[in-house]
Request: fold
Amino acid sequence: MTDRYAVMGNPIGHSKSPAIHAAFAQQTGQDISYHAILVERDGFADAVTEFRAHDGQGLNITVPFKQEAYELADRLTPRAQRAGAVNTLYWNGENLLCGDTTDGVGMVRDLTLNHGIQLRDKRILVVGAGGAVRGVLEPLLEAGPRELLIANRTEAKAEQLATLFAELGAISACGFDAIEGSFDVIINGTAAGLSGELPPVPGTAIRKDTVCYDMMYGNQPTTFVHWCTEQGAQTALDGLGMLVEQAAESFFIWRGIRPDTAPVIQQLRG
Ligand code: ATR
Reply:
């Protein structure tokens, strides 16, 4: 029997997840279906219940429901607990709703495996301190950077995250005007790009060999990727690889098989 999966969000119309999971299923010979479900802002818990009532096996959760999914889950993985968000749901053998997050591990896999970028002993700047950033801090710190600095418009939010993750590594926080020196890796996790804006990172933070990474992606280079390239960065990547990698990690959680992401990333770029 075909196992049912879906992604829930609002909006959801432009989600690439159905195409990604269809490609994974074909590649691995898994008999699954995967659809996008538009959920009303106040209807998330009901939508999950209904999905399960129709034999749904697992869900991806996207904006704006990741925190609600975290609250709804009966069981959370440690990384989801620390992220305060869930992007992957499934029901275990006892029919308990289990929540995990694969965004952070997806981003780190994209950087390290797909692009061959070392994070160990590196000086990393993470820009932004919202839910997206909180979701990537644990796997980033696990990669063993020398220093991880979070810079945010609202400095207090960056400080809060630094305190929350302090036991995992060398993490500190500041406002944009206190960013000093250059970095080996800069990751943009702000929502500034949604309105075509740039977070005010000083150009001096970027060297030729700085790896710049935008967690966002688009058909065109994102505002941040464009700006980093203008500052002379030779490597400026968008978050399409992260999207495919987080999907692969969810697929692995559900199906126990790890799909090959390279052809799927290539297909989406095309
Ligand atoms: P998400 O779930 O996408 O992380 P969020 O939790 O609302 O969304 O966080 C958005 C992040 O983008 C925050 O770090 C926000 O900065 P503030 O905490 O100061 O609000 C940041 N952000 C949004 N627009 C920005 C802009 N124009 N310039 C700089 N930072 C911006």
